[in-house]
Amino acid sequence: MALKCMVVDDDELARLMIRKYVEKTDFLELTHELSSGIEASNILLQKDNPDVDIIFLDVEMPEMSGIELMESLTSDYQVIMITSAEKYAVRAFEKNATDYLVKPFSYGRFLKAAVKANETLENQRKKAETFHELYVKSDSRIYKIWLENILFIEAMADYVIFNTVKGKHIVHHTMKGIEKKLPGSMFGRVHRSYIINFDKVEYFEDMNVVINDKYIPVGVSYREKVFDRLNML
């Protein structure tokens, strides 16, 4: 599956170059091409974050710089900073950027940064497959939740609700951030507002999955993946 990419740069030629580089790279797909940090912020800070894995982000932009945008993000993305000066490299790494590219950069250097981001995401996925519990802060307490006890997770404005066999926990987080932390072998997104534990699915009816008598809608864009996961005969 190709990694979804966003490029944010006020330089049209730089955006064109990155677009061409992405098109050359089998494991990348460009889904957003933006010319300002504010425009990117309006998209990335939506309550239901867009499907983005890697952000190619220009450091020097008017009104909102790349550094300022990066500081405002509430979800984890692989951010590759783009700059016209080496002096910004230190600041990029201080903000936990995956890599930085100095304009003009070759396809080879671009590919090296993209591979690094891909490897980091793959390591995160492998790590997620090996743990069995989460700690979440809810009502001024930190709770331990066993993954096997999670029924489903639903979005509620700027919060998510963990529905478990023992009750509910309301947590200030994003769906995309939670989705990245959960093992894909057990959990998956079925709707922009729902992540389910596939091990807890009881049956499927009228484009809904049913878990613990709760009817959870399956979004149109998620149906093919859901059907594949349910191993329908």
From TrEMBL:
Keyword flag Phosphoprotein: yes
HTH LytTR-type domain location: 134-232
Record-given protein name: Two component transcriptional regulator, LytTR family
Keywords: Phosphoprotein
Positions of post-translational 4-aspartylphosphate modification: 58
Native organism: Reichenbachiella agariperforans
Pfam families: LytTR (PF04397), Response_reg (PF00072)
GO MF assignments: DNA binding; phosphorelay response regulator activity
Response regulatory domain location: 4-118
Protein origin, superkingdom: Bacteria
KW Transcription regulation (keyword) present: no
PANTHER family per the UniProt record, alphabetical: STAGE 0 SPORULATION PROTEIN A HOMOLOG (PTHR37299:SF1), TRANSCRIPTIONAL REGULATOR-RELATED (PTHR37299)
